Amino acid sequence: MNLRLNSEFGTLKAVLMHRPxxxxxxxTPYNKELLLFEDVPYLEAMQKEHDVFTNLIKxxxxxxxxxxxELLIQTLTDRDILEKLMFQALQLNNLTHYKxxxxxxLSTAECAIALTAGIKVxxxxxxxxxxxxNELMDYAFIIPPSPNLYFQRDPMAITPGGIIFxxxxxEGRQRExxxxxxxxxxxxxxxxxxxxxxxxxxxxxxxxxxxxxxxILSKKAVAIGNxxxxxxxxxxxVAKALLAEGTVERVYExxxxxxxxxxxxxxxxxxxxxxxxxxxxxxxNSVLQTSLYTLKEIQEDxxxxxxxxxxxxxxxxxxxxxxxxxxxxxxxGNPDYSMREQWFDGANVFAIGPRRVISYNRxxxxxNALRNMGVEVLEIPSSELSRGLGGPRCMxxxxxxSKI
Length: 404
Ligand SMILES: NC(=O)NCCC[C@H](N)C(=O)O
Known about the structure:
By secondary structure, the chain is an alpha/beta fold. The chain is 31% helix and 23% strand. The strands form six sheets. A five-stranded mixed sheet has the order 8-9-10-13-14, with helices on both faces. A three-stranded mixed sheet has the order 2-1-19. Strands 5-6-7 form a three-stranded mixed sheet. Strand 13 and strand 14 (302-309) form a beta hairpin. The chain is globular. The structure holds citrulline. Citrulline is lined by residues 36, 148, 151, 153-154, 173, 212, 263-264, 266-267, 388-390, 394. GO terms for molecular function: arginine deiminase activity. This is arginine deiminase. Pfam families: ADI (PF02274). It is an enzyme of class 3 (hydrolase).
């Protein structure tokens, strides 16, 4: 039961990442919105940017960087898991009748690519020439691609009390959560260490929650964004599981306006040290409704929790939980730049240690402000990575950090 994290900024020891691959080349001007992209990236340049990010993490922290593709291939050697993931992937377009042929003719590595990058009719016909696909056009997807897979933050979350597997709101992303769940439940490096808090046992259609909405405020408090992607019911269930587990004592529900640039709580703020928060100035004013969940009692194995509607701003919540709080605004609050830089995830830096962050190079006003506060800022190139509208925190799933 060791997969737990008690801060957002303890020195990084292990992290999971996904190098963008063929799934990015599936984006076109016509499907990009459906697949939640702002533009059509140039894959080779994107991979180079991602490699800079990965190498910087390794060089500066010595942390283990797990690669999603490798973990997936290792997990898929179990035929039952492969069958289940393939069935779920084909279910989206009601094409599960292709499952057995695909499994017979594609290698495990090819199945891993099909599960992440998707597979088109003409590609499958190359492997299975006698495939009967009368009803489908050659360039249609039998399995749709998952171009958001490089945002490893969202399909799950590791909290002080255990793991939350996301139930992702957007149909295009739910398969990412299925993949992560299969890996963490079955891979020998992780399976004995998982204390699953969510989904609840036997829940077949859990309410929606995504990892980017979950932020560890302190050892005892977690904030969850009630957002475009995460709903109140999921927050209630996660709060109950976290409070029953006992490590966390307070769970805050933070209502975010439904706007593209507020899509997850971590697009609005990140925590860089025990008393330092980076945020978008507008967020402190527009996030006004918050609620607090605490444990009431546990009686005969029944957990009762209490919800208080606080009507407090995000700032008040942060001040309550983080003593001697210092707040830094994107672009230092300069209205000429803060909106621009927040759009490209200026507030979404990745802390690799206390006051040590990785940030997009394009957010230069924010990076300068961070340096002026004594934060070490390591910059990564960002022309292509930023087109998916997520930043360095979004691209990482920390697995182990030094305890605070
Ligand atoms: N935590 C995050 O904010 N992740 C960024 C996700 C971006 C992705 N294109 C999405 O819309 O889901």
